[in-house]
UniProtKB/TrEMBL annotation:
Keyword Iron-sulfur assigned: yes
Keywords: 2Fe-2S, Iron, Iron-sulfur, Metal-binding, Oxidoreductase
Record-given protein name: (2Fe-2S)-binding protein
Pfam families registered for this protein in UniProt: Fer2 (PF00111), Fer2_2 (PF01799)
Keyword Metal-binding on entry: yes
UniProt-listed PANTHER family: OXIDOREDUCTASE WITH IRON-SULFUR SUBUNIT (PTHR44379), XANTHINE DEHYDROGENASE IRON-SULFUR-BINDING SUBUNIT XDHC-RELATED (PTHR44379:SF8)
Organism: Azospirillum oleiclasticum
Boundaries of every 2Fe-2S ferredoxin-type domain copy: 3-79
Amino acid sequence: MTKTITLTINGRRVTAQVSPRTHLADFLREQQLLTGTHLGCEHGVCGACTLLIDGQPARSCITYAVACDGRAVTTVEGLDADPTAAELRDAFSAEHGLQCGFCTPGMLVAARDVVLRKPDADDRQIRVEMSGNLCRCTGYVGIVNAIRRVLDARKTNAG
Ligand code: FES
Ligand code: FES
């Protein structure tokens, strides 16, 4: 049995047939060929699959695709032209916030949310905010420093 859903993916209206049991991450990767969303734990713990649903970060491995009928989904590919994501990509590169890159799409989506929501976050708050995203390579220091770099640059530019 399949269900017809219509949703907006990265600004593009899409109608598709999905099984009610298909998770959003699998739907995006396998049916929409948007492989920027990564799957790690597949049970809502590691954050690798983080994307935006109606602008809010969400775990796509524990979200059914049918639950996104009528909603707007933004993957890391959809943030290509987003200025905050662009600043973060540069900062992750400059601060060595990635090694293998597996966690990076989810990290960027989550970090963008922190930058937009918590402009005055200190390093401890950044760590708390990012605690739902796991990285096996970096030890997190580079990731925190990257977010710190973007927040500091924004304050400098504003002041
Ligand atoms: S793959 Fe979704 S939280 Fe780990
Ligand atoms: S860079 Fe490898 S898991 Fe984070």
